[in-house]
Write a structure and sequence with these properties.
Elements lengths: L1 H14 L10 H21 L1 H24 L9
Helix pairs in contact: 1-2
Length: 80
């Protein structure tokens, strides 16, 4: 997302001819968009995106279980 944001900022600066970006080549200004596409393609192909989604779901699940335990008065249960 950082690359996408950088690309948008550079595109706006180039469009409104703000120095020094106005003097840069369009290739340089559009490079962050190409890198963003490459990153997303790699993340999907390698399974990175799916692993992160599973980690988020697991974290939500464990937080929900912990909140329910605390609401029932059982508190935190540590396993050894």
């Amino acid at each position: 997302m950082i690359l996408l944001g950088l690309g948008i900022v550079l595109l706006v600066l180039k469009y409104f001819e703000v120095a020094p970006v106005a003097a840069w080549s369009w290739w340089l200004v559009l490079l962050p968009f190409a890198l963003t596409v490459a990153w997303w393609a790699w993340a999907d192909a390698s399974g990175y995106t799916r692993r992160k989604a599973i980690e988020r779901e697991e974290r939500r699940r464990s937080d929900r279980i912990e909140r329910q335990r605390e609401a029932m008065g059982q508190g935190r249960q540590d396993s050894h």
